[in-house]
Design brief:
Three copies of one chain form a homotrimer. By secondary structure, chain A is of the alpha/beta class. Helix content of chain A is about 15%, strand content about 30%. The longest helix of chain A has 18 residues.
Chain lengths: ~350, ~350, ~350
């Protein structure tokens, strides 16, 4: 429980209303009740403001006059809400102490105040920093390291020679350090394996979503820099470099040797892969379901894909797409003919 | 083993042939032998009917005259086959009793006739209904519940505060309740975490495929309603609502705050995400690999994506697509010029 | 450590330089130092050749004259490097002997020199061949088999009645044999389950990437033939047949009943699914992010999808795509009018 005055101070907001009101939890604009704090960030929800029954709303000054209850006025309501959300943890049980139902190699070095859940296996020469938490059923291979204050959830498979920095969160069932996909056909067309001799380096403050995969490098390490956030079911191929503070949304996949600059945003379902290495500049945003087959040199927002329509229209349009070159040539021909007659 | 008469009764079919024939198993039209029952649902397989060596075939009346063997005539051969398939279980070993190699919190409540495999971890205040089966290596976090007769397979990570209804099936290695992907850049461009305080609610008779991910809500719960079927590698973002009896095929992903109505079918590889919440009406079918960036208000079948061609044609067509607006303006210009001359 | 002479012999290369030079490890052209062997396969890296500090480079004869250091001249530098990479293993700890923290059914048959990690569960009548390695937290269901010299990594869920051949590698957290996605709506629109009675057959020398899913067949087995390589997060639906020595890159998904011929290459993010079974001929290459909705009869390279542009251009072009049929008809109308005037 916090007073509005305390929360206003925490997020550096102008409080319009009563400082002594008590906030017990956060809620959505639509469903908030007395004692709840809510926020208006996405304009989509503006229609709900007038009717909210929250005790207070975090919002921008432009919305303040329409707020029927206490208002916490800020420049960036999303960011202010993020800070508030960190005050209202949910009651999640984290591993506390080291379960006896584990398999920890005697050469592993375990820091202070580490929590390790049941059925965790830790290999030779692993180093866990202070206050690290390892969820149940996670395995950590030989020579790998997890930095201070990182939390690896349940069912994660970390291979050997993987380095994870400090304050990272690895969600459940992710795989870090599996072999990169390196095969080359021999003269019989049989696929010969290229041994994957590199590792994976993950910086500080990185989040890896559930069931994501980050492959180890072929020769040098695959690299995920500080502050990167990966959503669920993201795939990072071997020898990729994901630049600091970039964000890759769900189901996005990077083929091998893709370098993403810092502060990029890749929306969901994006695929980046080429016949050689690709480079994406810093500050690039790529829209959902886009296929990127060439490097992008300039910051900006890029998009590919098509829009949906009813399926009958789509069938005709998609067929026309398969002859678009021909159509363009017919247009050029028409232009030529018309010019000849001028 | 069943007689044809018994099977005809079970699926309410008209039997053309001998009621006393014994059926030992089901098989495909092409490979069925004596003692096998097969079915003709997809017209693609009609060519195999004349040569089948099955003892009987489930089919529609229109196909009956071409059936060389006993026929079970029904209106809906797929549905009738589904019912028959349920008579011929495969011999799968399910957890029976509670393995001693588990880690079950003493505050957990376990129903009658529950089966729990080895290396399962169950957290504080978890409630498992009667006849629940939990496969090996599955973890269930604090305060979560699994309803009567549900079967959670191996390697599933269920976080805290997740509710799963009755008669559900969760296939292996899925993750339910991982943090939603909520980050917001601060003034330095560093991504601040929005704590994910909601949970996940899953109704009755839901199937979740292997390696699928359903994220917990930011404030309120992510919801999967009764009878929903999710295939493998499906991703459901935070605060989605998937309507009753909808079906999401493999590799489909929903960004945050997507609401799908009841009785929808999303084919494989579909991606639905927008800058704000999106709503898909009930009874909508979306074709494979379609990107949906706007809400869909009316029932019907929708499709996006492009068709494949040989790569040389595609290169030219795809380049033309990047200048399609210009081409359309050139056509408009031609129309204008031609009109001027009329 | 190997001498250049030894390596030249191993990969059947012409050595230009000093046979007695000692090679301690492999490295990239850019970062190689004395004692390192590197290779030039992708023309993208040719610019780095002149400045390399490696002790030797594997390359084609056309590049030999620009090589400032010892050269190993071969016809196929990628393939030669693959062979060399197999000489320089990384030091990965594999399960050695059978951990005592396992749950192995007494009816399981375990071959010679098998290694089984901690927290592995093995069901009734499972057969593990000689020298099989099973990583921690893997479960193998009843009646399944793993052939000689195969390595199943950590956290893999293998269901019942799955057959895996010899010398296979299954990367972490994959799922083999989960139920195929078979549901059919009844007259109320509720989805009835089609029991999945088949299994999965995987040949020899197959690689399955991390977090991939291969579903069991509805009636007959899903089949992955000899030498197939699957990358991470690949999905194979029920009753697919993946032909020998084919390669499916990351995030590619096959719907049910898709048959891929031998020696195919599916790049990343490809989706293949139709209303009936689809067949892809042998020797087909499909480019990244392509949707394949029809069978492909001839060998060759195919591609779908669109190219990215800046988002403003894309918005206009994508809207035009939704009226491409109309545009084509307008062009046809113009052609007609112009012809009338001739």
């Amino acid at each position: 429980m916090y007073t509005l005055a305390e929360i206003a101070r925490h997020i550096d907001a102008d409080l319009i209303g009563s400082p002594s009101v008590r906030i017990h939890k956060v809620a959505s604009l639509l469903n908030a009740r007395e004692g709840d704090l809510t926020h208006l960030s996405n304009p989509y929800y503006r229609a709900y403001l007038q009717k909210t029954q929250a005790s207070a709303v975090i919002l921008k000054s432009a919305d303040a006059e329409n707020c029927p209850v206490n208002a916490l006025v800020v420049d960036n309501a999303s960011l202010a809400y993020a800070k508030v959300s960190q005050l209202f943890h949910r009651n999640e049980a984290m591993p506390d102490g080291i379960s006896k139902k584990t398999d920890i190699d005697p050469t592993a070095q375990i820091g202070e105040d580490v929590g390790i859940g049941p059925f965790v296996s830790i290999g030779p020469n692993v180093i866990l920093g202070d206050r690290v938490k390892i969820g149940s059923h996670t395995s950590i291979g030989a020579e790998s390291r997890v930095g201070d204050d990182s939390y690896v959830h349940s069912g994660v498979s970390i291979y050997d020679h993987v380095e994870i920095g400090q304050r990272c969160t690895i969600q459940a069932n992710s795989v870090i350090g599996a072999d990169g996909f390196g095969f080359i056909p021999d003269s019989d067309g049989k696929l010969q394996h290229i041994n994957q001799l590199g590792g994976v380096s993950i910086g500080n403050d990185v989040v890896v979503g559930a069931s994501s995969t980050i492959d180890r490098g072929a020769i040098e390490n695959t690299v995920v820099e500080d502050g990167v956030k990966l959503d669920d079911q993201v795939h990072i191929g071997h020898n990729c470099v994901v630049g600091a503070h970039s964000m890759l949304c769900g189901c996005t996949g990077l083929g091998g040797s893709v370098t993403i600059g810092p502060h990029c945003v890749l929306a969901g379902g994006v695929g980046i892969a080429g016949s050689g290495p690709l480079n994406i500049a810093s500050g690039v945003t790529i829209g959902a379901m886009t296929y990127v087959s060439r490097s992008i040199d300039k910051p900006g927002t890029y998009q590919g894909a098509t829009l949906h329509t009813d399926i009958e229209s789509w069938r005709r349009n998609a067929l026309r797409f398969t002859k678009l070159e021909e159509l363009a040539q017919r247009v050029a021909e028409l232009e030529k003919k018309l010019k000849e007659r001028d």
